[in-house]
């Protein structure tokens, strides 16, 4: 007697080729099983939940119609791609998703031939897929390329740069807009409103396609004439109907919107436009969290909900202990805004994640969510600062890489009073190499007119925020990690600290340890262990990377033969590099060991596991101290 299974069809699918063996009438059942599999899996192994539930039917339809992996699917925002992973040979390993040594949290060509391009950050799918499509045309490969963009990614400027080039290069790219009116929080901006109201006639598209096909058959319509005809047609349509379709204005054939949860309609539509030439845009409407009622009602809360009870639908939240750094930021920002009417908050689509929603609740007119547009967030903040406001711009550290030029050109060059709060700095854990905030200290340090700081604990975060809010503080960076700090009683008075001034946490005589940020807390237990073995350790919290405390460095250079630096950032270009530069320039010759994130991309896993991989945990600090004992 065969054992009954909850997933009779899904368990027969080890590759998209297996999916394509099924009949169309079986596809709704495949979607049902795939959605239930995602729900069952993520209840106990947390991950990005609501986005992948919303893209189930699209995922099934794409792999059913297109001959993947020869045909290429480029996912925008890997949050949507869990169904894709499950259908492409990773079902039996999906329970290891986001775990140390398990499958990766986002699509990665290193993991699977079905993952055509890395998809950790947003808005890159159209540009990347356009490159693949143009390459296929140049190399005369008969393959289809599809970009799937959604979850608010259309608010990113890179998406428009890609769209702007669609008609200028030979390509047959299909762009699918998975429109769920969401990013992580609710989508904002004019594009969101356009997508909500856009409509198109299926009959019109069918007639237009028939005419174009006939003209091509008799040799009248070539690629150049086709683009001219499309522009004329779009202009005529806009004049007659007094409306302009944005995507058709970019010379892309537009289809939709259609119901993105009707898998059979999706298959029919994809088949009908699959072999059309030239760039095309298929617009589908989906519901983020589809199939799980709590997620449909509150997609933001269920974007990455953690462990939950399938029977009751309740999230299992661990309460108590110290607060998260982001919550201390949010509460402190409200305090500063109450005391200073010029304080405003800006975030690129992360108000809940960075806790700026707290400011939005109290001062909604002084809170600005600009969508997934980090560069714009920085330059918009610069404009606010130039106009007399005091902007606190909160960006996740790894995402800030996209606003680097904006910070140099629009903020630092003008010496503006501007506060950049970098959340998720350092090792972030299960989201992996696309999300680790490993490089901010190194890439920010060369920029003139910039103060760079990192708090030792939650009280230090409050003090640095208060310091940054003082008149004339200039462009001020505060970077802090994801998750909980170390203090339960964190509501200390708001007091300014001296810019460029560190502090001695503990005096010692044998080895000097210099740290920046909360990673310094690792030192406390390590120092106690080392001193049991006869080594006297001095510990300095540098607090500022720029300007760096040269008084501390001079004291260390004059009194210690052995110096160790520890930072939750890359060993190339950060605190350790700054210390070496100072010692060399000043003629001091201590032996300096730099501890931090090594010069390689660090994979995903629990932070404790990754600190061990990077040789940054307590045991490694103890070893670094004891190494100098017998020298």
Provide structural commentary:
With 631 residues, the chain is an alpha/beta fold. Helices cover 38% and strands 15% of the residues. The chain has 24 helices and 17 strands. The strands form 3 sheets. A 7-stranded mixed beta sheet has the order 7-6-8-9-11-10-15, sandwiched between helices. It is globular and about 85 Å long. The N and C termini lie far apart (71 Å).
Strand content: 5-15%
Strand order of the largest sheet: 7-6-8-9-11-10-15
The largest sheet is:
7 strands, mixed
Helical segment count = 24
Unreliable spans are: 190-202, 226-232, 235-243
Structural class: alpha/beta
Strand count: 17
Helix content: 25-40%
Shape: globular
Mean pLDDT: 88
Query: Separation of termini?
Result: 71 Å
| Rg over alpha carbons | 27 Å
What brief labels describe this structure?
24 helices; 38% helix; alpha/beta; globular; 631 residues
Q: What is the gist of this entry?
A:
The protein is of the alpha/beta class and 631 residues long. The chain is 38% helix and 15% strand.
How would you summarize the topology of this molecule?
Blueprint: H1 16-19, H2 27-44, H3 50-54, H4 56-65, E1 72-75, H5 82-90, H6 125-138, E2 145-150, H7 157-164, E3 174-179, H8 190-197, H9 202-217, H10 223-241, H11 246-249, E4 253-259, H12 263-273, E5 280-285, H13 293-297, H14 325-339, E6 343-347, H15 357-362, E7 367-369, H16 374-386, E8 390-396, H17 404-411, E9 418-423, H18 440-444, E10 450-453, H19 458-468, E11 475-479, E12 503-506, E13 511-516, H20 521-532, E14 537-541, E15 544-546, H21 550-559, E16 562-570, H22 575-586, E17 591-597, H23 607-613, H24 618-626
Parallel strand pairs: 1-2, 2-3, 3-5, 4-5, 6-7, 6-8, 8-9, 9-11, 10-11, 13-14, 13-16, 16-17
Antiparallel strand pairs: 10-15, 12-14
